Amino acid sequence: IRRTAHQRYGNYPVTLSDGFTVVLRAPLRMPSTERDALREMQRRMNTMQDDDRATDGDLLDVMREAMCLVAEGDTGNRLVEEIGDDLATLQTLFEQYAERTQPGEVSPSPA
Questions:
Q1: Which of 27, 39, 76, 95 is 20 to 30 A from 103 (CA-CA)?
Q2: 51-71 in b/e burial notation, b at 16+ Cβ within 10 A?
Q3: What is the 3-state secondary structure (H, E, C) of 9-59?
């Protein structure tokens, strides 16, 4: 069962330029308090994208915080340092992460 769950709700590995791999945890495999925090960060990001007062720096800060939250251990800092202030790269990575770790539709059980 665990193997099937891991295949279905797997983590998202990201290899840095130095060969180090940062593993971004799938939300369903995170503790509920961290999932709640991630949902709140996603809500803030969505709100900022529609708010003319929000700056790119504000969005970068929340996305960096989210990457650090979902990364295993303290490896998120390495990922954030490598990306720097490149908002396009960070947003692309976040979108890929969200797409890859999104739970699929539940299939009906065979009768």
A1: 76
A2: eeeeeeeebbebbbbbbebbb
A3: CCCEEEECCCCCEEEECCHHHCCHHHHHHHHHHHHHHHHHHCCCCCCHHHH
* Single-letter amino acid, residue 79: L
**Residue 15 forms beta bridges with which residues?**
21
pLDDT, tens only, 13-51: 999 999 999 999 999 889 999 999 999 999 999 999 888
Higher local confidence (pLDDT), 6 or 102: 102
Residue 104: per-residue pLDDT: 57
- Residues 65 and 53: their CA atoms lie apart, in Å, by 20
Tokens of 84: 């720097």
Reported as type and span, the H/E element at residue 88 is helix 87-101
Q: Hey, is 24 helix, strand or coil?
A: strand
* C-alpha span between 23 and 105 (Å, rounded): 24
- Give this prediction's pTM: 0.84
